[in-house]
Amino acid sequence: MPDLFSPYTLKGVTLRNRIVMSPMTMYRSRDGLMNDFHVMLLGSRAAGGFGLVFPEQLAITPDGRTSVHCGGIYDDAQIDGLRRVTSIIKDMGAVPAIQLGHTGRKGSEARPWEGGAQIPPDHPDGWQVVGPSAIAYGAKSPFPVHALTREEIKEIHRAYAAAARRAADAGFEWLEMHFAHGYLGASFFSPLANQRTDEYGGSLENRVRFHLEALDVVRAVWPERFPLSMRLGCDDLHEEGVQFEDAMVAIGLMKAHGLDFADLSLGLNTPNLQTRPFNEPAFMVERAARVRREIGLPVGVSWNLGVPAAADRMIREEQIDLVLLGRPALSNPHWPVWAARELGVPDPFALVPEDWGWWLRNFRGHDESIGWPAPAIGGE
Ligand SMILES: Cc1cc2nc3c(=O)[nH]c(=O)nc-3n(C[C@H](O)[C@H](O)[C@H](O)COP(=O)(O)O)c2cc1C
């Protein structure tokens, strides 16, 4: 029976454990470039014991970013910075993963702590946002949406392929397509955002065409030995939006188009959610377990899995294959070491780089002051 610390192999890639740093947009790029900040952020999580490490969503086109401060992979000039990131992640014993994204009608935003509102297209930091149909997201993203033409959709698919080629060149070994969170892939899938009358809209098979074509062009250039995954907005939490049963059909189709792994998340295609599960522990796991069982694809999820015993149980029960951590990875770079200690795994310091581990095992002092991360609430 696997546990949180069992190695995990998919295709030609082996992770040292089941713990993944989930992609998180940091708003610290210029011209879409990775810099010292990203090397620090991602290198420290790899040194802290994570098995798979994602930088933030990287945009396949400049207008696919969330803001002008977000990272991209739309230009060869971005490869060097990305290579610095993959190199430190590998040096620290983890596998570097990339999430390719296009924010669609939710792009052109201010930074969240500056209000996060959409910036109008005529502002120097804004642009014309695009989507499957001319329907604005609403709330903080109110500006008119340009409905993509068929030729523009083809261009986006070409941008996906070019980005995947750059990703392999930069040293990434796992590629995830971002089809969730109200971004372009999510909006093509959702009747709330997609009211097209051509072959990209209407029936479920049409609403998933954008994704299947994207997977096809990426699979054609992404090395076969490396996993291809996607994060799908599998539920819009709205009666007129994506229902989980739609996602089951779509994921089956994606599997036939070369998908190796499914990362399930929310659609977030409307600000008017009819249910709000955000306080519930592990609320995506049940859906993922169904995909694993009924479609036969390995799965991972994020959302409220930061309690080590809960994360470990989901793996032991074989409900999910990988645990993705967003906020816990931000708050504790050594979450895996802490979790290993909480779960009584022998030698938690085996997770840190060998030289640090040597010092921590051999140069013992006062055990209480060795700098262990804080115990869990209710723990010792
Ligand atoms: C600061 C921040 C930025 C995020 N950016 C992204 C992103 O770029 N791509 C993505 O798919 N999810 C993004 N997310 C969502 C996380 O990857 C994760 O799915 C979510 O936080 C739930 O997991 P958690 O409960 O472990 O935090 C972001 C979350 C946070 C907190």
Which structural traits does this protein have?
380 residues; alpha/beta; TIM Barrel; two-stranded antiparallel sheet; 33% helix; globular; binds flavin mononucleotide
Word description of this protein:
This protein is α/β, with parallel strands linked by helices and 380 residues long. The protein has a single domain, classed as Alpha-Beta Barrel (TIM Barrel), CATH 3.20.20.70. The chain is 33% helix and 13% strand. It has helices spanning 36-47, 79-91, 150-170, 184-189, 204-207, 209-221, 244-256, 285-295, 308-316, 327-331, 335-342, 354-362, and strands at residues 8-10, 13-15, 19-21, 52-53, 58-59, 95-101, 130-131, 146-147, 174-179, 228-233, 261-265, 299-301, 322-325. The strands form three sheets. Strands 3-4-6-9-10-11-12-13 form an eight-stranded parallel barrel, surrounded by seven helices. A two-stranded antiparallel sheet has the order 1-2. The radius of gyration is 20 Å and the shape is globular. The structure holds flavin mononucleotide (FMN). Residues 22-25, 56-57, 99, 178, 180-181, 231, 265, 302-306, 325-328 line the site of flavin mononucleotide.
How are the elements arranged and paired?
Layout: E1 8-10, E2 13-15, E3 19-21, H1 36-47, E4 52-53, E5 58-59, H2 79-91, E6 95-101, E7 130-131, E8 146-147, H3 150-170, E9 174-179, H4 184-189, H5 204-207, H6 209-221, E10 228-233, H7 244-256, E11 261-265, H8 285-295, E12 299-301, H9 308-316, E13 322-325, H10 327-331, H11 335-342, H12 354-362
Parallel strand pairs: 3-4, 3-13, 4-6, 5-6, 6-9, 7-8, 9-10, 10-11, 11-12, 12-13
Antiparallel strand pairs: 1-2
